[in-house]
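INTERNAL AUDIT FORM
Audit reference: QA-55
Scope: verify that the stored structure record matches its stored sequence.
Auditor: D.O.
Record contents follow.
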Amino acid sequence: MSICVFILFGLFHADGASGTFKVTQLNDTLPAVFEIGEYSDEYEKTIAQYPTLLQACHDDVYLAYDKWLYMLNEIESLALSYGVSLKGARLYLSVVWNANGTIRHIAYYPKSDSQILHKKSIQNLLEQFVKSFKLPITSNQPITNYGSASFPIPVRKQIASKN
């Protein structure tokens, strides 16, 4: 038990108790969109070097959650514009945004209780999404977030334009 606590404390301390992250240059050859598990080692190395969406939102959980919902709502809107309903779709998503809010990588995996999604359809949808989406956020480095999505997205009070 004490070894686990020490290891966890060491990991958090290594990330910097001051909230700063040491960014090392990696040879980022990952595709923009891929299924979770396809590039595990390289992706884990990539996301480990960046702060989270919550940290980029100055630990304001409501703002971070709103930005996440904003992105999910935009995915759903894009799907509907293509005549695709995501109703009943449930996904795990892991995203790396560039400092300017554009998406560098989005990894996805359907949850076991999700409606049937054709891999090619969701892949194509997310590839189009990556080309046009920009998260309204101000950051001096890329940021990451891992979460889930259940469609349809609930109606929300918009605050995502706040940095």
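Auditor finding: record pair retrieved intact. The chain is about 35% helix and 15% strand.
Action required: none
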